[in-house]
Design goal:
Layout (H helix, E strand, L loop, with lengths): L4 H13 L3 E4 L2 E4 L3 H18 L16
Antiparallel strand pairs: 1-2
Helix pairs in contact: 1-2
Length: 67
């Protein structure tokens, strides 16, 4: 299952509404507790972060007088 931000958003929405059944990747998943949902959300977030390449921004500064 490829993790998407929509899956994580669906879990966040269900957690905030105290729902136990969430639709993820066109399948319904029933969780036993809120703690289990939070753990699943954190795990999915880690997977998404690892799959997404991070870009590095480098700033160059110049000091001194500008004559």
């Amino acid at each position: 299952m490829a993790v998407t931000q929509a899956d994580i958003d669906a879990l966040d929405k269900a957690i905030s509404r105290a729902e136990k059944i969430v639709k993820l990747d066109n399948k319904y998943v029933e969780y036993k507790s809120t703690e289990q949902m939070i753990l699943a959300r954190d795990t999915l977030q880690k997977q998404l972060n690892q799959a997404t390449p991070r870009t590095r921004i480098v700033y160059y500064t110049q000091t001194g007088r500008a004559y």
